[in-house]
Amino acid sequence: GVKDSGRAGFRFHQPRKDVDLLARMRLDHAMRQALLDRRFRLHYQPQLDLASGQVIGAEALIRWRDPLRGEVLPGEFIPVAEESGFIVAIGDWVLHEAVAQAQRWWQQGRRMPVAVNVSALQFQQGQFVDTVRQVLKSAGLPPDLLELELTESILLRDADEALRRLQALAELGVCLSIDDFGTGYSSLAYLKRFPIQRLKIDRSFVQGLPADASDAGIVRAVAQMGRALGLQVIAEGVENEAQRDFLREAGCHEYQGYLFSPALDLAAFETRVWGAERPAIRLVQGGVG
Ligand code: C2E
Ligand code: MG
Ligand code: MG
Ligand code: MG
Asked: For the EAL domain, which residue ranges apply (predicted)?
């Protein structure tokens, strides 16, 4: 039993680890099947300009409804996919899907930049920059309508190689941002050196606004630093007006969060952003010319 000491305790814990491993292997298998069965979907969360209240972009967030498991959250399966390497295939699918959607909007006369989350393993693939170039080219999407959200860990792994890749991506004309900013270890020197356009302040620093003094201080400091470095600053996880008003006063540029809208499926997103307004049909095929 549990009361047994020493070796018995060790044996008690060992099988539990195996159960975890088995559960992760099953989840990984189910993910691979889900990609084949086209069970992944993208939802889109509006991003708004703090000064004008206009929707200025959307973050694509993956969703998975499994017939047996129901809705599986990204926080549950993305870490497993990162561990197994399957995140590369998922990331590829997300990139194609998000670019195709941004292109459809563009062709409808709707300028809606789409931000895609890129995981470290995906970014480290030798062909990542070529993949992005190819996907943009075959869709005929103006590159500035694609934003890549990178995490601070990406910048730290191999800083010289990361810098080369970021420069190649910046030359393509895509927008680069740092997601969950403040939760990692990026140094100010990196921020100055890397061709980043945007910082996304992590939700954990927004939660306590405006009352929490350290959250307030961190947010003010990031907004000021962003301005000094010529970066756009967006806050995520904005759930109430007091938070939004603080962010605006602190000098942040943009926000996203449940206050305006959670991530929505395509139809709901379009209704939330454009209402009943009909799209204008762009006559030029491919939409670039
Ligand atoms: P993230 O990129 O930081 O995305 C923001 C998360 O916060 C999303 O959770 C979003 O639904 C949620 N959120 C937005 N506004 C609010 C709010 O006002 N309050 C609260 N409590 N939450 C809010 P989600 O969709 O569950 O995604 C979680 C994480 O999973 C993402 O964090 C991202 O790291 C990862 N993820 C999601 N989709 C993808 C993807 O396509 N590829 C990769 N590599 N990772 C993804
Ligand atoms: Mg993100
Ligand atoms: Mg984020
Ligand atoms: Mg976050």
From this structure: 24-277
Report pLDDT for 279. Answer: 83
Q: What b/e readout covers 229-262, taking b as 16+ CB neighbours within 10 angstroms?
A: eebbbbbbbbeeeebbebbbebebbbbbbebbbe
Q: 118 alpha carbon to ligand 4 midpoint, in Å?
A: 13
Ligand 3 centroid–CA 127 distance in Å is 25
Which residues line the pocket of ligand 1, CB cutoff 6 A?
A: 45, 61-62, 73-75, 78, 91, 94, 117, 119, 179-180, 203, 236-239, 256-258, 262-263
Probe target for ligand 1 pocket from 39, 41, 61, 78, with the most ligand atoms within 8 Å of CB: 61
Phi/psi for 56 (5° steps) reads -115, 0
Mind listing the pLDDT tens digit for each residue in 17-26?
A: 666 899 999 9
